[in-house]
Structure formats: structure tokens, C-alpha cells
Design goal:
Shape: globular
Number of strands: 8
Oligomer: single chain
Order of helices and strands: HEEHEEHHEHEHHEEH
CATH class of the largest domain: Alpha Beta
Number of domains: 2
Radius of gyration: 19 Å
CATH topology of the largest domain: Glycerol-3-phosphate (1)-acyltransferase
CATH superfamily of the largest domain: Glycerol-3-phosphate (1)-acyltransferase
Structural class: alpha/beta
Length: 287
């Protein structure tokens, strides 16, 4: 695993050029806090409302000379055209959330081992990490950030720092939050996307429960059709955005804080509670 910072810089230049097609403007609050992150190993924690989140965050980090962190992304984004800018060299770690939800014990174990290996490389390589604790943004409540968070990634990150015997003084957390006024790019099509997502999840479950190959093939075909509709709906949201009202993006940045007090057995639970409360506090100021 290796992030190509030169590629990130080229990607940001293109993103800056096309942003005017999708976004009216961007307002960043407490931007001076980014300067405090230099030369530090950072665990980034934010709410999640759109695929566009990571684009704005990448632009922001790059403009302040900060290295790109690794970030968690849904595996369906590892397809053209999104994988042209979301891939391993730009920091994407793709995960199959259907396996995490409905997978067999064997599949879940393989996924866990894969994730553990990736986090091991993030820590040993000294990279930042941005796990998006709310998971996929489809089911997140815009006005209620961090209502439901998944702490498996910060848990494994904390454990790996301890396992590798890293210097606790080098590790920091950084909470930030994002909001879109009026609507995010995908929001007008969210109900349709949720419907297709439910179809995909239903088919995944039926495939694993299938008693014969004919039944399995039937649901595999249905899953592919539902996935195509899901993906095309998102592409249409972006293709049509230049002709719709563009949102204002607001980003609020917290203060960096040492992870030293959380680098202990069970410390990730305390960290999770703090992240929830702090991100909600930051979000209220831009909602």
C-alpha cells in the first residue's frame, strides 16, 4: 500500500476545475487548525453525507500541504468512472459492506483478516486514517450526525498502534464535520437509491440461502440488475447536478487531540463516545 501524493495533487487540480459544476462554494471554519496537523499521524473522524465529502476533504488537506490519509470506501466505487480517482494510490480502501452485514462466517473472517492487514500497513507506514465511522451515507440522518457509528476500525487502529509499540506521543485524533446547504448532490435521488440498495441486500441474502444452483443464479442476475440501477442513479445525480441548484458546502474543524490516553485496552470505547459528542457539537455550528 502506497499513496501517490503527486497523483493526489494532479487529481486536486482537476477537482478544483470541475467543482464549480457541482458546488456553489465552500466555507471552512477554524481552518487554522489544519496547520497543527503537520508531521503528525492522524485518525480523522467525520460525519458522512455524500461521496463528495472525500473530494472536499482531499482538496482541503492538499491545499495545506497535508498528506492524503487512507479512507474507507464502499467496494461498488471500485468501478469506472469512480475508480479513476478513488483507488489505492489515492488512499481508497474498498470494503464489501454486504459481507459485513450478511456474509457467512468464513467470508466475514476473510474480510476481518484483510482489514487487519491493511490497518497494520497504515500504522507501520505512518499514514493517516479516515474510516468514516457512520459507514455508507445512505442511511445517515443529515441533522443527527454520528447517531450510529461502527468502532471496529478505530478499535483495530488503536490495537495495532499498541501491538507495534509505536510512540503514543506521535498519534492524534482530529474531528471534523461537513454539511450541505441546500441538498447534497445525491439527496434528490436518495429514496430511489435506497430502494435499489435494499434490493441488492435482499439478493445477497437469498444467494447465500439458495438451496440449488438455479436459485442462486436467479438471484445473482437480480443482484446485478439492481446494482446497475443503483450505480447509474448515482452517476445521473452527478451528471444532472450542473443543471440543478448547487449546494453550499460547510466544513467545521475541531482541535487536534492526543490519542495517548486512549492507547490502552478498551480505550477505543472511550474514544468512540468522545468522537460522537464532539462531531455533534461541531455539526450544530454549521447546521
Amino acid at each position: 500500500m502506497r499513496i501517490d501524493q503527486d497523483k493526489i495533487s494532479k487529481y486536486v487540480k482537476r477537482a478544483n476545475l470541475i467543482s464549480k459544476l457541482f458546488i456553489k462554494n465552500v466555507q471552512i471554519f477554524n481552518e487554522e487548525n489544519l496547520e497543527k496537523l503537520k508531521e503528525k499521524k492522524i485518525l480523522f473522524n467525520s460525519n458522512h453525507l455524500s461521496y463528495w465529502d472525500i473530494i472536499e476533504y482531499t482538496k482541503m488537506f492538499n491545499s495545506h500541504g497535508l498528506n492524503q490519509p487512507y479512507f474507507i470506501a464502499a467496494n461498488h466505487l471500485d468501478n469506472f468512472p469512480t475508480n479513476k480517482f478513488m483507488n489505492e494510490s489515492t488512499g481508497a480502501i474498498f470494503i464489501d459492506r454486504n459481507i459485513a452485514k450478511e456474509g457467512s462466517n468464513e467470508e466475514k473472517l476473510k474480510l476481518k483478516e484483510k482489514n487487519a492487514k491493511q490497518i497494520e500497513e497504515i500504522v507501520s507506514g505512518g499514514y493517516g486514517f479516515f474510516p468514516f465511522l457512520e459507514g455508507g451515507f445512505r442511511n445517515n440522518e443529515k441533522g443527527n450526525p454520528m447517531k450510529n457509528i461502527k468502532l471496529s476500525f478505530p478499535r483495530d487502529y488503536i490495537r495495532e498502534i499498541i501491538r507495534q509499540g509505536k510512540n503514543p506521543e506521535e498519534y492524534f485524533g482530529f474531528n471534523l464535520t461537513i454539511n450541505y446547504l441546500e441538498k447534497s448532490i445525491e439527496e434528490p435521488f436518495s429514496e430511489r437509491s435506497k430502494q435499489y440498495k435494499k434490493e441488492i441486500e435482499f439478493c445477497v441474502k437469498k444467494i447465500r440461502e439458495a438451496s440449488n444452483s438455479k436459485e442462486r443464479r436467479h438471484y445473482e442476475k437480480k443482484q446485478k440488475r439492481a446494482f446497475k440501477k443503483y450505480f447509474v442513479t448515482d452517476l445521473f445525480a452527478y451528471a444532472s447536478q450542473p443543471f440543478r441548484k448547487k449546494p453550499i458546502v460547510k466544513i467545521n474543524l475541531g482541535e487536534p487531540y492526543s490519542l495517548k490516553e486512549y492507547l490502552k485496552p478498551g480505550g477505543w470505547l472511550e474514544l468512540g463516545k468522545f468522537i460522537q459528542e464532539d462531531v455533534k457539537r461541531l455539526y450544530k455550528k454549521i447546521s
